[in-house]
Amino acid sequence: MQELGLERFSNDVVRLDLTPPQTSSTSLSIDEEESTEAKIRRLISEHPVIIFSRSSCCMCHVMKRLLATIGVIPTVIELDDHEVSSLPTALEEEYSGEVSAVVPPPALFIGRECVGGLESLVALHLSGQLVPKLVQVGALWV
């Protein structure tokens, strides 16, 4: 799994290395030349529920637990510091241009739409809108 840039940790977190390979190889992988921003956009489009986080982020842990309680296991991508700096550029459209500085992880996306951080997730849950949104994107079956 490590040759793919993935590492599995004991707390159900998969770490994906988004940095381009340093050596030039003759691999047929189409992602080899993909920028960090493009990878982030692709991951958002491929996963119904995805959290971008820093390593050992306590807020990400709380987000995962809340979603797991509801019955959803999100995809969690841990970003390095240099990858976090790519997050605002990748998220400008999703935040409707409201990004003024670095978007601090964790950043949650449900159905390609940026929900925001932990506070936004809890607000969505308390308002009764979280479960219908998860059902709508196919992340939860009721």
TrEMBL record:
Pfam families: Glutaredoxin. Keywords: Cytoplasm, Redox-active center. It comes from the Eukaryota. The keyword Cytoplasm applies. Residues 49-115 form the Glutaredoxin domain. GO terms for cellular component: cytoplasm. The keyword Glycoprotein does not apply. InterPro entries: GlrX-like_pln_2, Glutaredoxin, Glutaredoxin_subgr, Thioredoxin-like_sf. Its main location: cytoplasm. It is found in: Cytoplasm. Belongs to the glutaredoxin family. CC-type subfamily. This is Glutaredoxin domain-containing protein. It comes from Arabidopsis lyrata subsp. lyrata. The lineage of its organism: Eukaryota, Viridiplantae, Streptophyta, Embryophyta, Tracheophyta.
